[in-house]
Design a protein that fits this description.
Layout (H helix, E strand, L loop, with lengths): L16 H11 L2 E5 L4 H22 L2 H6 L5 E3 L6 H7 L2 H11 L4 E10 L26 E7 L11 E2 L12 H7 L1 E2 L6 E6 L4 E2 L9 E9 L9 H8 L7 H6 L10 H7 L5
Antiparallel strand pairs: 1-7, 2-3, 3-9, 4-7, 4-9, 5-6, 5-8
Helix pairs in contact: 1-5
This protein binds 2-oxoglutaric acid.
Length: about 270
């Protein structure tokens, strides 16, 4: 049913569910989006996070070494280890939302598996922006996070908290504001909790008896820097590079800095 308005000459588009998600993102700074991925893929991602984390512990020495850099319980750059994570990062609903929020050019800045255990300290429970250390606002979305709930997110197992609309304000609010207005987002397995990358958020404390897993994506305009160069990351693990030119662009192959002046010019040749 149409709402009544007065003196309104400009409105957000409202053609479909993705437009509604965009409206929530622009105004509240968060929304929930169905990934559309089948349950068996979600199950494989669950074991994939655990497997990749164990592999990365071995790569780095031991878990104590990860603890020394405050990086326990995060499986980094997961798509370089298992093709299911590329399927996830390119889920059609996610790509549609990215196009509506950011336009035709956007890059995957990070993809990390997050393990929230009941019996451990978790660095993500502190309020933060994913574009961390930044205290300014932008009238347009420049980046967003898509946190896939691999397990169902419940109030008990540490579902994420958000501070709605804080992407519009430069400073972190007061302690009282944060405790009064924080909102916990329960969501079913297979959905993305999507946040403007400038929205303050935090993980919840897991007081259940089960591990809560998620996969976070940071997707943004190409001028932002990737955490890991995905081209070299794929080469390092021996995973084949995708062939779809749009996926290559999304993974940053086109946007990585040129290696020298001639490379920069060659990249601009029409045949490339
Ligand atoms: O695990 C969560 O609920 C939040 C994760 C988070 O804050 C992040 O990855 O930036």
């Amino acid at each position: 049913m149409a709402v009544l308005t007065h003196g309104v000459t400009q409105r957000l588009a409202s053609e479909d569910a993705i437009d509604e998600a965009v409206a929530e993102m622009r105004i509240n700074g968060y929304t929930i989006l169905d990934s559309g991925l089948p349950a068996d893929v979600i199950e494989r991602l669950k074991s994939g996070i655990d497997r990749i984390y164990q592999a990365q512990i071995s790569e780095f020495g031991d878990e104590q070494a990860l603890a020394s850099i405050s990086d326990t319980d995060i499986a980094r750059c997961t798509l370089a280890y298992d093709p299911d994570f590329l399927t996830l990062a390119t889920a059609p609903n996610l790509m549609k939302l990215a196009t509506r929020l950011l336009g035709s050019e956007f890059v995957l800045m990070q993809q990390n598996g997050i393990i929230n255990r009941p019996d451990r300290q978790n660095y993500q429970v502190k309020w933060h922006r994913d574009l961390s250390y930044q205290h300014w606002t932008s009238s347009k979305t420049i980046a967003f996070n898509a946190l896939l709930c691999v397990d169902e997110f419940t109030n008990e197992n540490g579902a994420s908290f958000v501070l709605p609309a804080t992407h519009h304000i430069e400073e972190f609010p007061t302690d009282q504001f944060a405790s009064r207005h924080e909102k916990q987002i329960a969501a079913r397995a297979g959905s993305f909790i999507v946040l403007d990358a400038m929205l303050y958020h935090r993980g919840g404390i897991n007081v259940s008896t089960d591990v809560r897993r998620a996969v976070n994506h940071l997707i943004g305009l190409p001028f932002l820097a990737q955490q890991v160069n995905l081209q070299t990351a794929l080469e390092s693990t021996g995973m084949p590079a995708p062939t779809d030119p749009n996926v290559l662009k999304y993974l940053g192959f086109r946007w990585s800095p040129a290696t020298h002046a001639k490379d920069w010019r060659e990249r601009r040749m029409p045949s490339r």
